Amino acid sequence: MKRSQILLQVFLGCVVAASAETQLVEKVDMVVRAEAVRSGRVVGQDASVAVTLAGTPGVSVTSQGIPGGQTDLSIRGSSFSGAGISLNGLSLQNAQTEHFNAELPIIAGVLSTPEILTGVDQVLVTEGHLVGTASFSIMPIDTGRSLTFGIAEDEGYWLSTLIQESRPFANGAGISGFGVFGAHTQANSVDSQDNDVRSSRGGGQFQIATDESQWDVVVAHQQKAFGARGYYGVTPTWDAEEETEDTLVVGSWLRGDLHGSYLRASVMWREQSDDYTLYWTLPGVYNNAHRTVTQSAVLAGRELLGDSFLLDWRASGQSERIRSSALGDHDRTRGGLTLVPGMQLGRWSLKAGARHEVFEDDDSETLPQGAVEYTRSERLRLRLSHSQSVRQPSYTELNYESPASLGNSGLENQTAETTELLATGEFPGKVEWRMGIFQRVTRDAVDWIRETEASTRWTASNLDRIETEGVEVGVSRRAVGGSRVAAHYTFLRKSSDVDFYSSRYAMDYPEHHFLLSGLWQFCPCMGVELTQVVRQQEDNPLRESSDTGYDGALALHWVPCSSPRTQVSLMVSNLWDDDYNDFPGQEVVSQRRVSAGLTVEW
Questions:
Q1: pTM to 2 decimals?
Q2: Distance of CA 185 to CAs 153, 174, 225, 243, Å?
Q3: How far apart are CA 389 and CA 365, in angstroms?
Q4: pLDDT (tens digit, 9 = 90+) per residue, 159-204?
Q5: Residue 592 C-alpha from the chain's centroid
Q6: What pairing do the DSSP bridges indicate for beta strands 414-427 and 484-496?
Q7: Cβ distance 197 to 187 under 8 Å?
Q8: What's the half-sphere exposure (Cβ side, CA atoms, 13 Å) at 557?
Q9: Where are the domains positioned within the chain?
Q10: Distance from C-alpha of 139 to C-alpha of 200, rounded to nearest angstrom
């Protein structure tokens, strides 16, 4: 029996069990008069989205150093180049390298909880990422001020603040608001004696909200410097450092409800710079500097046509310009149009359409999209979907040449076809669950590989075909008083028709990935927060550590009864002092880190 047939039988068995009639007794909600304990993950040690994503079900965060240092994202076993962030429907990309896909100069407190999107869901909300997207939205402004200060081992510290003010219109038809935010982090010796991290970010926002629409403008800037000894496959015997800057301007207008009929327009201008220096043993130093400017615009909406028909549509355009001492000077543009009509027939919902992508100096792609959904009740919804996506190689993959890596100017655009069978539901007590099986076929997949054991550099290569089969199971519950718990498990199996000695990204994946996260408020003024990841990685001859990693973080939060707008936190990261190496061929000296923080709101 084929592996995919076995997965299907397991899936259907789970669905039958989940949909069986059971007697569930819903407890009476208790009224909690004290203010709920706030989450340190929400505040964030460095207020970055990377820290927030580290505890989000459905996404895997892999860091060189610490989250907020150099961080890669992976969704459903994708390479770091296959997953990224969107903001108010704008896909945030970098033509230089997707190593910056987790970067956002806006602090996490301004943004919504991320929604992890794949397949058709991703295409209807954003575009540009091959496998999946962590989708953020700008939160409504509410009058308030917060200040967080923390200290860590090795003389590390962090500081962040968010000040927002909202005022109602004189006629009561809406509100206007503005805000300013800022954050600074210093972390020392994160994985090597001289690998420190210093980052600062700040900006402002303006918002107008009425019953029918919302306008947002956000301007933000970030500067970061971090030690990069041993990063990107370079030997750790050479010291290295990297400095980045990121300036982002976003404007957005939304009318209607994203879950119903709506119209949204978003524009973005972004400039990112990256300066990498390697102190090798040859005369002089190895240095490359890059500056990337990205401009994009999106107009999207959903039209309800009568009682049974609807139309999801998106039109987008993007231009990218890079000026680089190592990659050369390049400009490219892309545009796309998505049309996905749908209809509702009783409990059945059907959607079928396509996205057409046009590239400058590359062949255009027509990408079919379709889904059929059956809703039995709130307890059970079934959906079968098929989606296709396309990605252009980054200029690092095309043109880079360093002591550890070699690009390939002949790389083709890569495409992915994803078929998914998903079951979701809700039980009384605010319990949500999901189970799914999926298959993804990636053609011309870009990966960095060592072709033979004697190879000394990672080479960017097109793997003709990668076939991925997976199972996803997740459950979450949010209780009264702010307590919450979520568990998410992914099983993956990949195969490729290309022989190689070692893969650094696409074929170096977790066969098993389990995330448990939660905040338990055992009294109105005290709570415990836990994030625990267990991953069993595919065998790789260059990984020097065990193939199993145990990344845990624990925090104790205390809200004094006499000061309910103050929170004191004691936190431990790398809870089990795990020495798992995230990247093959890269030795990491891990250590447990203890920190303490204070958050005050007024």
A1: 0.88
A2: 13, 37, 11, 14
A3: 9
A4: 999 999 999 998 888 999 999 999 999 988 888 888 899 999 999 9
A5: 24
A6: unpaired
A7: yes
A8: 30
A9: 3-21+39-601
A10: 22
Dihedral (Cα; 492, 495, 499, 503), 10-degree rounding: -20
Matching CATH number, 3-21+39-601, of 2.60.120.10, 2.40.170.20, 3.30.1330.10, 3.40.190.10: 2.40.170.20
Instruction: Give the contacts of 497 (CB within 8 A, at least 6 positions apart).
Output: 463, 464, 465
Task: Of 265, 328, 268, give the one whose Cα is nearest residue 293.
Answer: 268
The set of residues, in sequence order, having a beta carbon less than 8 Å from that of 463 and lying 6+ positions away, is 442, 444, 445, 446, 447, 449, 496, 497, 498, 506, 507
The first and second tokens of residue 404, run together, are 């550890």
Min mean pLDDT across 39-43, 429-433, 577-581 is at 39-43
pLDDT in tens, 486-529: 999 999 999 998 899 999 999 999 999 999 998 888 887 888 99
CA 569 to CA 575: how far, in whole Å? Answer: 15
59 φ, ψ to 5°?
-130, 140
**300: pLDDT confidence band, cut at 50, 70 and 90?**
very high
User: How far, in Å, CA of 211 to CA of 213, rounded?
Assistant: 6
What contacts 62, CB < 8 A, 6 or more positions away?
A: 71, 72, 73, 74, 80, 582, 583
Q: Which two tokens stand for residue 372?
A: 């059929």
CA distance to 190, 191, 554, 585, per residue, from 194 (Å):
8, 8, 26, 19
Coil, strand or helix: which one is 541? coil
Quick check: helix, strand or coil at residue 38?
coil
Question: What are 243's two structure tokens?
Answer: 């400095």
How far is it, in rounded angstroms, from Cα 289 to Cα 274? 6
CB 392 within 8 A of CB 413: yes
Q: Is the per-residue pLDDT at 274 higher than 60?
A: yes
Contact partners, residue 543, CB within 8 Å, separation at least 6 = 508, 537, 581, 584, 585
- pLDDT confidence of residue 51: 84
pLDDT per residue as tens digits for the range 336-394:
999 999 999 999 999 999 999 999 988 999 999 999 999 998 889 999 999 999 999 99
Of the candidates 59, 46, 136, which has an alpha carbon nearest to the alpha carbon of residue 90? 136
Residue 575's CB: how many other CB atoms inside 10 A? 17
Residue 516: CB atoms within 10 A of its CB come to 17
CA distances from residue 339 to 342, 355, 368 in whole angstroms, order as listed: 10, 6, 10
Q: What angle do CA 185, 116, 338 make, to 5 degrees?
A: 120
Is residue 334 a contact partner of residue 297, using CB atoms and an 8 Å limit? no
How far apart are the C-alpha atoms of 478 and 69, rounded to whole Å?
A: 30
Say what the pLDDT of residue 583 is. 86
